[in-house]
Amino acid sequence: MSNTKNNNFSLKHFKNDFPASLVVWLVALPLCIGIAKGSEVNAFSGLIAGIIGGIIVTIFSGSKFGVSGPAAGLITIVVAGISTFNGNLEVFFLAVFLSGIIQFLLGLFRLGVIGYFVPTSVINGMLASIGLTLMLKQLPLIFGGYGGSATHNAVYSSYMQANGIETTHELHLLVKIWLDTQAGIQSISTAALIIFAVSLLTMLLWEQDFMKKRKLFQYFPGSLAAVIIGSVMAYWFNSNGAGESLSLVKQQLVSLPAELKAWDFKNLVKLPDFTALANPNVWIVAFTIAIVGSIETLLSVEATDKLDPDKNLSPTNKELKAQGIGNAISGLIGGLPITMVIVRSSANINAKAKTQMSAIYHGILLLISVFTFPTLLEMIPSASLAAILCILGFKLLKLKKVIEMFKTDRQGAIVIIVTIAAVLATDLLKGVGIGFALAMFFILRKNYVLAFIDHWDEQKKELTVSFSQIVSFLNKGALMQKLQNVPPNSKVKMSAKKCHEMSKEIQEVIVDFRDITSKTNNIELELIGFEKFDHVAED
Fold it and tell me: pTM of the predicted model, to two decimals?
């Protein structure tokens, strides 16, 4: 085991790992900034998460090719969490820190299997709802809208007055998106629309097969191309004095803390507010981040292992502990929540990385880029990031898969649709809970029906009941109803040959039918294979 670990951190594969890290860095840089923008926090928080995910998490991880960082799947949780604390980032970072402690404990108590107990339909519904919300949240940015503008404030004020809502009242997410979009449309920016359209077309072009086949474009991600093209267009619009409609204001570009450019580390790092430990909402947000982040990580681990050419199996409990350490540190210094991310991990594998050092190198490159060219990062327009997030959201939505599921697994498709609707109507945690309850209902109903197979022969007046391998107390009602409908003077044949486990409740129903009902109604009963079940055999 120690040899494997040494190999994973060996420098002898530098010629493979460093080129792969460049590819992952090019993928991660725009995503870290874009996810921070979507989370409505400073870009620096997303870059912190990317750096910690690349360096710290990788050191403690057991995954050979997994790459961690801020995830699009947690954006809605971050936005809702910050809103819960009325924009107080220090309290939110406390929740991120605590989520890391919770994740570490999940790994320590070997609960890395929790992902396997969540129905796939619920997970797909959760990801789809996150993807849809992510896409909707980009609408204001597409039109060039931004919070704090005169038009934006006027739209909010008008809505509040018309509906008799106090300014301190928290609006529903969809209402906020609509108001932000309305404000954007009223002060539409032609430059933002053009940059968004060109960035989106660039990324869609990169997704085409003829582009994927070319080696150059395999290592140069579409997201980076969209950011570069969008930045060049924004610079050209602003420098050529094309008028107000063809220019962008500062709020429509990426912003980094002034302390970063001044190298003022003392005021740059945002520490969590530990005085809020008694706030129950802090713990609710922390548990939400920990559970959803853990599920997303475990899904990414499984997907990454499938892509791994050597078919290594990553230890899930070790991965949860690594993610916990990363999130705790990220929360301590003002970073976003971290998960393992399949986009970066697959890029790492496709770039022919050999060891975990490629992920570490990419984290170091992120660190260098933050402090060497922050001015270049601030030239990135929000409209380009909106295009990237729309593509990410659409991939999370998996619309084609949902449509196909209506043909193959209608119940699973219904769970996905209900989960999406419930998340949009309430919040992520409640919506997923509703989807989980529906999935459990379908599973229990299926178990209720399939625990035994029965056949009624009208000519022989005979009921045949054959039990499956496991029959639980959940099937008691179905069996009782079936036996109660057996007409008098008939025959019942029950077979437990295939059954390995039968609950005492079911055995009691059979004993009662044998000793009371069958004799009362003159029913001939034949029991086959019940010798292994003491409760039936003893009586």
Answer: 0.73
